[in-house]
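Let's do one together. I've listed all components of the complex below, 666 residues spread over two lines.
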Amino acid sequence: MGCKPNSILYTFFWCAIFLYIGVASAGSRGHSDKNWSQYRGQNRNGVSLEQVQLQAWPAGGPKLVWKRSIGEGFSGISISDGTGYTADSQDSTEFLVAFELKTGKDLWRVGMDKKFFELLGNGPRSTPTIADGMAFGLSSEGMLVAVDAKNGAEKWRVSLAERYAGKGPGRGYSVSPIVDGDLVLIEAAGENDKAIVALDKNTGATRWGNHKARASHSSPVMADIAGYRQYIFPTGGKAISLNGDGEVLWSIKAPPGMIAMPVFIEPNLVFLSGSTDNGCAMLEITESGDSLHAAELWQNRMMINHFNSSTYYQGYIYGFSKATLTCIDAKTGERKWRKRGFGKGSLIVVGGHLVVLSDQGELALIEATPEAYNEVSLFPNALSGKSWTEPAFSDGKLYLRNLKEMVCYDLVN
Amino acid sequence: MRGHFIKILVFALVAAAPAVAQELTLDEVIQKNIDARGGAENWAKVQNMKITGKYRSFSETSPFTVWRKRPDLYRFDLSMLVWDGTICYNGEQYWWIFPRAGEQFSEPSITPEPHSHFTLREKRFEPVFWNYKEKGNTVELLGQADVDGDPHYKLRVFFPDSTEEFWYLNAETFLETKQEGPMHDFDYQQYMPMEAFYSDYREVNGIVLPFLIEQEYAIRYRIIKVENVEINTDLPDDLFVMPKSQSDGAKSP
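Okay, and this is what the predicted structure of the assembly comes out as:
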């Protein structure tokens, strides 16, 4: 049986198309995989997209690339297209800051607002979001600032307090904005159905507002469920899901005292954890007719996140239940293991490992497995002093900060 | 046949092991705890102790000093954010002072109920289940329980005020590992379930003390790391007396 020439050409054509798509998507993914462009990473879930092999560190810890001082603030670190971003405070001002990834040196800094003073730590709490060449920062007093990510040139600024009569929570505006398409979505904690607002990314104009609720400290998460793009805000004792037009898709009672961010688990689960002894809950979002419905799959006290969020990885949820590093089964909520000693730490997942930062600046590398707590490496002095900000990871480098210093470690070489 | 017999013997021994451990009575478990903590004789020699170290709360670390004097005098000095002051029991009254925590606490004052509950528990000179009948408490041995993968004896302690605590004693060392009980939080204004973990036991002058204590309730997490213990030091009673005003001497000696 011979091959027809046009059959060979046909096969070659589709092979070429598939090859091109494969290379193109790999290239695209390879580029974005190195970004950590918003709170909790590229997908806002604390999981690095990079395929890296992490190994045990030498006795002196991972290789230090640089260390620098930084102004007070709990803001996380975002990384996009080779530049780092965070927010800090100096003298009496809170700044949105861009820094060079190789050296840690400031590239630019833009004053956002007056400095926030608070018993547990001063300065900005919100993590900048970087999208489409713009950087978006939020001050503790609710000043939302949009700048050119390259040079810090200001595009617009909006006071959530002034425009929406917003009243931030007791410890200051802490939520990190979502930027999707031409919208910037943020909990404004405003009056007149402006608890949640969407602004035009390019102009700062209000596109819509919805919901009545007092301010929370919990950042929203974005999800695609059953074909619905949605933004899930835990606020006012509820988890409320809105679409891009500001319409409520579903809402459900949330565990009390939510500060941690919801965890979206594809295709249709949402994990919520409160900071009180009521614990956590797993929601299942299902489509019924033309609407979505949220129902609680299980609820228990096995994971009680305080201010840092849990991370889902391969069927299991890893996080700090109060001050104990804990692994639970996402299907059942059953606890698999727990380990004390990291205080109110934080964690991300990189290359199949948990990268854990203790609240005193100890850094640990732990296998991300439900089998047992398997510590690969422990480095006691990654940061000095109270360290509540989650790590960020990009291009093999780990970025950490606390209220006074910022460091970069090479975890790959 | 011989192999079969050995299998049965091994099975019988394994099956019997927990039962053997379970057969200890409450009094035997408590006696083993007393022995593990240095023995009643050594504890009887201890009239007072001064404990210093680091106290961590809100992830901030600062120094603390605790003085204890028989039968139950207690003073805790700490420096933590604005909570820079003293919590004390003078044998009759609970009092406190936090000069930087606002007008309400700027002068020494009687600690109101239920805030004094914290001091009520902390002022214990010895483990709560020792001589429990003399103290008016009731204790039950609830059997074995798991703590961090290790078998423990679980004790329930009932207090005259109708509260209760659970204590977990390691089945091998008979040292206390974990405590569960109510904690009244100042901010929450309510009782909340509390877990405390005791570890890093060390011998000091013949008695054995935990040098690491972790307390966890609601979103609170406190770590007490003991650095030094002085036994039978010069400890005058007036250290525990509530001063009339801040300038009247509520400061550490």
